[in-house]
Fold each of these.
Amino acid sequence: MKTDTGRGPSWSDLRDDLVVANRILVDQHVLDAFGHVSVRTAPGEDAFLLSRNLAPGLVTAADLVEYDLDGDSEDDRAPYLERFIHAEIYRRRPDVMAVVHSHSATVVPFSVVQTPLRAVLHMAGFLAERPTPVFEIRDSAGGATDLLVTSSKLGQALAETLGDGTVALMRGHGSVAVAGSLRAAVYRAVYTEVNARAQAEALALGTPIYLTPEEGATADRTIGGQVERAWGIWCDRVRATLAGSGGHGE
């Protein structure tokens, strides 16, 4: 594993935030025993941090591994099979600083029906620009896969489906959420699940009135400035588990 010698306090803070992000996403029922979250090591860098193959709720700073955009690392511990999701999104999107891949329960049904996931809440204005695209793995790998993105080729196809957007679904599998910061990516992953739940409930009642792209953009600019407010309360909720696990240390 690469050492952190000479990388300074900002590197330590980035690692600490990634540990906290794992715990928050579990606490918010976005991740469970599976799924993962990563962060680019610095703006413009072709490398990212991601845990070794481990349940997100158990991740500590000692479990973090630095990968390049081929999904390779000097660390010999078992990696996540789907690290290529992160690598290829970072390769295609220099603006992206963090990626969350989840199987959140209310989002997955929208990946297997004709009704697209769309913004119904102001908190999810980032979903309003277009109906959320769905990655169909059969188009890239045929009809006998395990639905996992386990190669650069499949990661590239998923990144193309995401395009310049914020969220993409993966048919029968889950979703990815991206942002220009780790905290914003966590926010988007959480509120993608919240919006999916609200949209499903609205569809059961009748025909939802969706946010327009203009409403979504305006709401996202306003609410996007409040990400730290959400991060603060979510951190408070997981502080006890971090203290108990030694999550911020080596």
Amino acid sequence: MSIQRPTLDDLTRTGQSLGLQLAAPLLSEYAAILEAVWQDYDRLDQLPTPPMVQRYPRSPGSVPTPEDNRHNAWYVRTEVNGAVSGKLTGKRVALKDNICLAGVPMMNGSSTLHGYVPDIDATVATRVLDAGGQILGKAHCEFFCVSGSSHTNATGPVQNPRNPGHSTGGSSSGCAALISAGEVDLGIGTDQGGSVRIPAAYSGIYGMKPTHGLIPYTGIMPIEMTLDHAGIMSANVADNALLLEVLAGADGLDPRQDRQVPTQAYTQALGKGCAGLRIALVREGFGHANSEADVDAAVRRAAALFESLGAKVEEISIPMHAMGHAIWTPIAVEGTTQLLQGYNYGSNWKGLYVQSLMNAQQGWQSQAEHFPHDLKTCLLAGEYAYRRFGGQYYAKAQNAARILRAAYDQHLQDFDMLLMPTVPLKAPKLPPADASASEWVQRALEMNANTAPFDVTGHPAISIPCGLAAGLPVGMMLVGRDYDEATLYQAAHAFEQLIDWESLIS
């Protein structure tokens, strides 16, 4: 089979987009020269793509009725049963709807991807099934996972089960709602600016963003390769640690991972208590311009309770933390825009490419008018900055990331973990469908001052519920050393077992 050759007009337009002005005789000569290139494309096109093996039967599932989807948390309900026994036997799992599950539709929160059906299982899906887990379906997320609130999904907002009408947090909104409502035990989400930890905080559940690369991202629709983290959401700490045992480790297909990713038996950290742990309360994690006083107070009170459990808590200052969000922003907006231009994978990357997803994304510009305000403004900023400054601010931010990491690591030599509010505010009310662009974007991006910096540095971080303020959950974030998730689980489990967080009311 031969690929379609460009016409001379095609080559003229392509050359003009590159700043090349090609006279007709030279253009014709170039066309002849390029025939050898296209012949290699022809040969590659003839090479068969190896089929992906599906070891566990499944059906495409179905979109639940509104009566069976009270919080608009499900996109598709299905039932994929894994191995007859394993660590996850009896556990019900939801996958965020940017995670490929072969034969089951995936829309990643967007109208433009609606109708796409993956042809592979993501590594995390395979590992769940191999461990005996049951995947019950795909959970709604925000439009292309850009929002930290739960109002941007193309089908409508995801409601917070604890207080309908309020945000569940995003972008792993559906997983949070399903766990909070008790419909599943576990959710696998993704986190590029806080998208596991923010909904955990808003919804009163546990959300772990592990060390960058600890969980393979293979078969998950990316946003920005250096920020992409797969993470775990759960109703309790023990289930969270158990799922990390199943998911952690290299798969040989994700270049975000080292070839030898260090893993641990995370559940063995449970029950050890936190006596002797050294916890640093980070001053700059409090008192943001939009911080709510009752949230800051609840987290400080919870930090003091760690002392009653035998930990040593000391307040410290990390001035660079206040710059973390500014470092994250160019990486997020420019990186996201450039990756989307490359149909979600771009080039210069040795990972597994999901070609069916790339095909589904091709030509997204023709549907960009349907994008929500938060995604449109992100793309405008990313495209302008990249073109105007040639990617130099993206580069400066990536270089500054090492300074930011060093600032945290300096204190993690003396302390076992850092502590701060997960988000500076409680779950706000969802904006109306006709909200202004300003209100829409503010609600989508207002909450990640503390979460985003650790996507840049890659440190592991867990959000744990630590109290109620005005009837809504407050999240406390613990941040640890690379690959030291076990110590975070140790502290989180001690707090969970000995403190009734719902009795801590502000």
Amino acid sequence: MRADSKLLLGTLSGMGAGALWGLVFLTPQIAGDFSPLQLSAARYLAYGVIALALLLPRWRRISGAVGRAEWVALVWLSLLGNIIYYLFLAAAVQMAGVAASTLIVGCVPVVVTVVGSRESDAVPLRTLLPSLALAVVGVGLIGWESLGRESAGGDPWRQLIGIFCAFGALFSWSAYAVFNSRWLARLSHVSAHDWSLLTGVVTGALAVVLAVPAFALGGEAHGGEAWLRFWGVSCAVALGASILGNGLWNRASRLLPLTMVGQMIIFETLFALLYGFLWENRWPTALEVISCVLLVAGVLWCASSHGRKPRAEGKAAA
């Protein structure tokens, strides 16, 4: 596949993943009467069940394509990118608000891109600095306006804990993005979709352990309608964000260099904001529009930098 075709297909896959992942930020709001532990356990139990059902017809062949090292890696990736990340994120959204969580987790592209710039044959970090600056300013402007609105009248200690949880989500998902990209590069014989399903099976197994304290230790009582909404939302997020979103993300991770993969996470922030506006039934403010424009401009700048690299290398080789 040509380099420009890989760049385009990888970017579209990253955008699709971001569109599906953005829905995750609404889940704690829709089912806010359930704890972050319950939200995390239910989503990933559903993810595991759906992934196993899709893999069962090909289980013998797919499981035989991975060894002990890959299974160990899947455990770590499931913890970092799913269980731990979502537990931190759900707690952050409920305690610090969507804006603060989006602001902090929105720094994932910067962290991943900086790490990716240290790999061999990567686009130099100095070339990517303008796109990173646009991303930082864009996310910063969103937080500047939204934090004051959400923090008014809130418990400062609860908000502080929520902010720490958001940073936990930031570091957990950054580590997942880096290590998952490296494992996909090694496993050319396993498709990006199958790697996502295998991750789902392992995540579901881990979620069984998580479900014990989440559901067996009591807590607030809920009516039948609340439980129906809870499991409906959990299954929808598992299918959309985990099965489809993770599959698209793995596709993008295989097609794009890590420095470009980091920028794709910005689409999760953009779509999370869009869904937030729809949920709140309002138009974005002027500052929020400027922020979104800066985020998109940063991605386009980064894509342009990567698009020039293959052509420059081709001329040098000639």
